[in-house]
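Summary for the steering committee. One of the milestones for this cycle was to obtain a three-dimensional model of the protein with flavin-adenine dinucleotide bound, which we needed before selecting residues for the alanine scan. The sequence and ligand used are listed below.
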Amino acid sequence: MADFSLNEDQVQIQKWIHGFAEDVIRPVAHEWDEREEFPYPVVEEAAKIGLYGWEFMMNAFSDNSGLTLPVAIEELFWGDAGIGMAIMGSALAAAGISGNGTPEQVMEWVPQCYGDANKVQLGAFCVSEPDAGSDVSSLRTRAVYDEANDEWVLNGTKAWITNGGIADVHVVVAAVDPELKGRGQASFIVPPGTKGLSQGQKYLKHGIRASHTAEVVLDDVRVPGRCLLGGKEKLDAKLARARDAGRSGEKQPAMATFEATRPSVGAQALGIARAAYEYALDYAKERKAFGKPIVQHQAIAFKLANMATEIDAARLLVWRAAWLARNGGFSNGEGSMSKYKASEVAVRVTEDAIQILGGYGYTREYPVERWHRDAKIHTIFEGTSEIQQLVIARAISGMRIE
Ligand SMILES: Cc1cc2nc3c(=O)[nH]c(=O)nc-3n(C[C@H](O)[C@H](O)[C@H](O)COP(=O)(O)OP(=O)(O)OC[C@H]3O[C@@H](n4cnc5c(N)ncnc54)[C@H](O)[C@@H]3O)c2cc1C
């Protein structure tokens, strides 16, 4: 049975990250949002204290209760979501490697997604393409095996990639046999400095502006055979099974990664929602209108009551999903439920926070408008809200729903 009381280690981690978020991240959050650049100095600070690093991520991933990661992420994103993404962005690449690689590949490449306190490195997980976002089974990026040289040749363009082009390690999902759709895909490591990989356009975004998002162009990128995650034998067996089955199934490497990371994305949204709720509550106790603090007007008080209730409901779903991911797995789309609920709650709560602050809330002098912009991405990336609904609907009905 799930037990949601945090153990001593988890409480310590929660306090430790909260302190970093409050003392280091919050004071510079506005500045990095305005600069719209990757906040290297802050990530370096996080690396110095061991918060940005593969050991921390591996410890958090291996916690049997599953709760360490969402607890940590909520505090980080409470500090700031753009900087939070800059610190967490490499984790998606690490999850892609851990989910699909051999133990040797995990040990070789995950540490390189982080580097160390003296030289911070980054990872990027490259799935989405200009014509394939939600529909990840239709990737056009091709991987062709050059048997004579035992190399894979990658060609294509990836879109919307967090840390794209500035990362040291790019994990690229590509079609080996496009006819097999999702089951004909595989993941490849593109090591640092590989020729042919370049950054395309950098996107200017609505929110999480301190996180770098860009196109990644793969032009005859050659990687050694050992960079195929999981190895050739396993891929050949998978392709043979898919061909025998004579149909194009749904399972593909990117989906496995996204399923596992959904509660973490929900936790990111929770952090933003909690920041906005706490700020709005404090403000409502101070700000007076019609002779009393606005919190004493029922319209504002009820809004705050709903915000608190929705945040707690979302956290319960996130923690349940994180626990299930480590203890038995999802059976009714619980991972999607957690991400769907928490991201929609974050958008709503941050909007309500602007409303509670009135005109001040609409200005960039106050953080709530930034939190609202930051919250919105959570209903879009790692599966839009509609795609989460699709996953849940399929799980509960057992029927094909398009
Ligand atoms: C800031 C940012 C960072 C990102 N980081 C990464 C990253 O690191 N790696 C990566 O690979 N990708 C990344 N993405 C890409 C992101 O995952 C995609 O944008 C997302 O999956 C949606 O794909 P799309 O943009 O192509 O939208 P589309 O798939 O074109 O969807 C458009 C609309 O149609 C809806 N829709 C589509 N299909 C259906 C359906 N079957 N039923 C109902 N509605 C449907 C969608 O919900 C959406 O509302 C990032 C995106 C952003 C904006």
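Key point for the committee: DSSP finds twelve helices and nine strands in the chain.
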